[in-house]
Structure formats: structure tokens, C-alpha cells
Amino acid sequence: MGEQMRWSKRLLDEARIPDGKTKLTLTDPDTRGLVFEVRNSGRSFYFRFTHEGRQRTVALGPYPALSIADARRKAEELKRQSTLGVDPPEIEAAPEVPTISQFWDEVYWPHVQLHHKNKIGIRSAYTIHVGKRFGTLRMDAITKLMVRDWTNSLVRRGFKPSTINRLLVLLGHMYTMAHGLDVPGVPHRSAIGIRLLKVRLTHERHLSPEEAKRLNHALRHATNPMLRFIVAFLLFTGARKREALDARWADIDLDTRTWVIPVTKTGGPRTVYLSDGALRLLDELRHDPVHDPSLPFVFPNPKTGKPFACIFYAWNAARRQAGLDEFRIHDLRHSFASILVNNGVSIYDVQKLLGHASIKTTQRYAHLNATKLFRSVAVADQAYRGALEG
Predict the structure, then answer these.
(1) 258-261 β-sheet, strand order
(2) Where residue 116 sits, what CATH number does that domain have?
(3) In terms of residue numbers, what domain contains 149?
(4) Greater confidence, 291 or 375?
(5) Same domain, 302 and 186
(6) How far apart are CA 59 and CA 62, in angstroms?
């Protein structure tokens, strides 16, 4: 790639730093003094000229936020100003655009610590994937091609679409936040072309009443005496496992039949409405020998007095005993949603009960059974049958 090659968008997009070098510099054959530099921190245009016997360099701006045509216009204007005697320090240089790692350290990670419950998960996703791939690049240097190549590499490495989407959402949200905070030089997230992959549901499972009986029997003989209360509470409320494990008595109001989850997966509070079954379960728990009234948690580990870190081993033994080897704890939440939808509960009510911000998320649980569909189609039958058969 020669320095005098005609500039084009493709040329600048594909320019790479030579092995053993720290940067690549290309000069524009059409505009004297205009240069394009590729560094690990990003890609930018500069204008080099001589003013009062001294060579000066002025940063014009980052690429691709600044196009080739824009850079040429700015270079010509600086030439004109220099000819008129304008001192270069008076010429405003482009602001320094942060790298992905700088923005993460200074802005995004502090935000996560204050507003997100899944801090460890978000930090791991950034460190292992986003930061490793883009951390040294300036936020204006990442292109749609780079994001597409990264996405394709994750697919080739066998990551599931849902996992890849979470990483893309993380990267995109960093740009949304930076743009919203008017961080100088950071483009809108559309400039990097975030496009989520289609997710096919390969695991669709809900608990039948007969299976619930078998599971309840197995849970009553589980090695973890608190497990049967936890599982039943999840099935009655549709809550996430971690929400239930961290539940506190102080957040449950038996008079108003509500449970307030202070911090949810999305970062804000949520109110869970307690059914008769949930209230009876809590009453049974408070009269059970396993309950310690001195502890603030609803389902504490009897050995530590703190929330369980993991209940998988006891759960795995119980589900296998019940003949439900592939049934996951999260399927209890799926079962809660499915049974509501299949019995005519509005999808919007289900959205509210599950605490979903988007109705699209709730629709994943709307697996209507054939019986309800036959009842629904019969409405048209009853309305038109008489007129059409007559």
C-alpha cells in the first residue's frame, strides 16, 4: 500500500499497521499536508504545514466521524488561515476521543456499580470479550466492519446467539451513554452497526400439574430443607432465582400482599403481587423448624444464615428423582408465565407480573396451547356459522 495511492473509503477502512510498527501514515496526493494516521488508539486526520519557519501539526478529527471530503475542506481552510498569518495555537484542534477502555474505567463501570445488580457478569463480559477486542481503540475508530467481524468470530467460536447479543448490547449501550453525555467525538451507536442475531428458542418447557406433584414429593426429601419452599415460591410468583434467594422479610408486606424487590436485573425496583398460595407458603415457612426468626432473609442457608450462593446440587438430585432431568430452575418462571397466558391472562398483565421492560421479552413465554387456540377460533365460528350455513 503506497503512500501516494488515491484515497478512498475502502483504502482507509482496510489500512493496517505494518508488523513491528506502532503506526501507519498515509499522505493525501490530492491535498498537500493532509495525512491519515492509523494507531492502536484509532484513526485520525492531521494537517502538517510550516508556519513562520516551524513545522506544525494540527489534529483535524477522527475517522470515520470525519470523512475524506471533510478533512480536505478543513485542511484547505487551515492553509488559508496560515497564509493570512493566523497563529496555529488559535486554530481549534479536535478533542481527544476516549478509548473504549478509558470510557469503561472512567464512566461506564462506575455506572454499573451504582445501578446494576449483575456487576460481576457485566464486568466479565467486558473484560473477556469487549475490552479484549476493542479496549485500545478510540470510540470513533470502531467501524461497522470491525463489529461485524467480531460478531462472526464469536459465532465461529461456538457462542450462542443470546450470549453474543448480550455482548453487542453492552458495546452499544456504552456508545448510547457516551453520546447522551456529549462525550466529544463519540459517534452515535448507529455508526458502529449494532445488529442483534436472531435467537431460536431451543428449550421450551413448562411444568404440568402431574409433574409438579412428582417434583413436590422429591423436594420434601431433598437434602436442602429450604429447597421446597424456594421452588414453590418461584412457581407461585414467577420471580427469578436470585431474586428469591436474596429476598428479605422487610420487603414483604403481608397486609398489602406485596413483595418489593429493591434491585432487579434491570437495575430498578419491582413489586411482586402475592397470591393466596404464596401467602400460605410463607406462613408455613414461618412455622417450620427450619425457619430462624432472627434472620432477615426469607430463605437463608441454615448453616450460614446468609442467602444461598448455589442450590444446584440439591435441585439436580430432586429433579432427577422426579424424572425431570432436563427441567431447569428458570423453567419455573417459564411455567408461571405459560400457565397464565394459557388461561386467558392478558400478555400485558403477564409482562407486568414478570417485570419485563419490553412486551417482546414477555412474548417468549406466550406458548399458547391447542385448547385455548381452539376456544379462540370458535369465537368466529359462533359469530358467522348461522349466517353462512343458512
Answers:
(1) 252-253, 258-261, 270-273
(2) 1.10.150
(3) 100-192
(4) 291
(5) no
(6) 8
CATH of the domain at 367: 1.10.443.10
Residue 17 DSSP symbol: P
Calpha distance 183→264 (Å, rounded): 29
Angle made by CA atoms 24, 28, 33, in degrees to the nearest 5: 95
State the total domains in the chain: 3
Cell of residue 112, nine digits: 454499573
* pTM (global) more than 0.85: no
Q: Do the domain assignments include residue 165?
A: yes
Residue-level pLDDT at 18: 87
Is 330 a domain residue?
yes
C-alpha cell at 302: 441454615
What is the DSSP track for 293-352?
A: TTSSBSSB-TTTSSB-S--HHHHHHHHHHTT-TT--THHHHHHHHHHHHHTT--HHHHHH
Q: Give the active site residues.
A: 240, 265, 330, 333, 356, 365
Residue 329 maps to a domain? yes
And the C-alpha cell for 27? 499522505
Region of poorest pLDDT, from 5-9, 340-344, 367-371: 367-371
CA 173 to CA 179: how far, in whole Å?
A: 10
Nearest Cα to Cα of residue 204 among 342, 312, 331, 339: 331
Query: At residue 23, what are phi and psi to the nearest 5 degrees?
Result: -160, 165
Cis, bond preceding 64 (omega within 30 deg of 0): yes
User: SS3 of 61, please?
Assistant: strand
Do 173 and 130 meet the contact criterion of CB atoms below 8 Å apart? no
Are 189 and 175 contacting, i.e. CB atoms less than 8 angstroms apart?
yes
Three cell numbers written together for 266: 434491570
Q: Indicate the burial class of 367 (C-beta count within 10 angstroms; 0-12, 13-18, 19 or more).
A: middle
305: cell is 444464615
Alpha-carbon span 43 to 136, nearest angstrom: 12
Residues with Cβ < 8 Å from 4, sequence gap 6 or more? 27, 29
Q: Around Cβ 272, how many Cβ atoms within 10 Å? A: 24
Range of lowest pLDDT (127-136, 308-317, 361-370) = 361-370
Amino acid symbol at 286:
R
Tens of pLDDT along 79-108? 887 777 665 544 444 457 889 999 999 999
